Amino acid sequence: MSSNISSLTLFRSLYQPQQAFAELAKADPSSRRVFLTYSLWLLLLPPLFSLIGAANFGWRLGADQPLFMATGDLLTISVGYFVALLFGLFSTVIISRWMAKTYGASVSLGRHMALITMVGQPLAMASIAHLFPDVLVNVLVLIPATIWGMYLLYAGIPVALETPPERGMLMASALMAWLLVAAVSLLGISMSLWVLGVGPLLGV
């Protein structure tokens, strides 16, 4: 069994997912290598696009005029965005590996890191919409990307983690529940911090 998996294989999950998952199932990659050579760079894309878009066009939240913010505030938000994505990746990888024992799946940490990276890849690529931070534009782009990511999760677990399809479906559903809870919790925490004055003053 190979100890490495190429970045090309991870990228190919966007357009040839079954082949990419089959290659991952034959490998036992290093989680550190997967993170440093691929996952990290994907995580940097959304905050970077958001920073560039907000600095040039302002946030368009439905008001008549876009909201422009100081460079320092934009950097703070972008760093917070990156930290949230980093937490999301590592927590999901750890929970996925923990669940694997219950569902008879592979417990290789590197394989879980690669799979979760593949699942999040469509959203990372679709974050190019942040270059024009209009709510409607981003919703129209990110919703199809989210659906594609969900498909990759449900299709990838049985193949990449070598578990029966019915168990893979249950494991994918459990991971989706975790991701939804984490997303809603993050929104609530962000709003609470802003209300308390931690972060940009937007009048909330």
Care to describe what's here?
- It is a single chain.
- The protein is built from seven helices and no strands.
- It is mostly helical and 204 residues long.
- The mean pLDDT is 88.
Considering the chains and any ligands shown, give keywords for the structure.
204 residues, 7 helices, single chain, mainly alpha
Q: Give the biggest sheet.
A: none
Number of strands: 0
Query: Please, how many helices?
Result: 7
- The best one-word shape is elongated
The helical percent reads over 70%
Task: Average the pLDDT over all residues and give the rounded result.
Answer: 88
Question: What's the alpha carbon Rg, rounded to whole Å?
Answer: 18 Å
Distance between the termini: 54 Å
| Proportion of residues in β-strands | under 5%
Q: Structural class, from helix and strand content? A: mainly alpha
H/E element order = HHHHHHH
Spans of at least 5 consecutive residues whose pLDDT stays below 50 are: none
Topology:
Layout: H1 7-12, H2 17-25, H3 31-57, H4 71-103, H5 109-126, H6 135-160, H7 165-195
Helix pairs in contact: 2-6, 3-4, 3-5, 4-5, 4-7, 5-6, 6-7
What does this entry show, briefly?
The protein is an all-alpha fold.
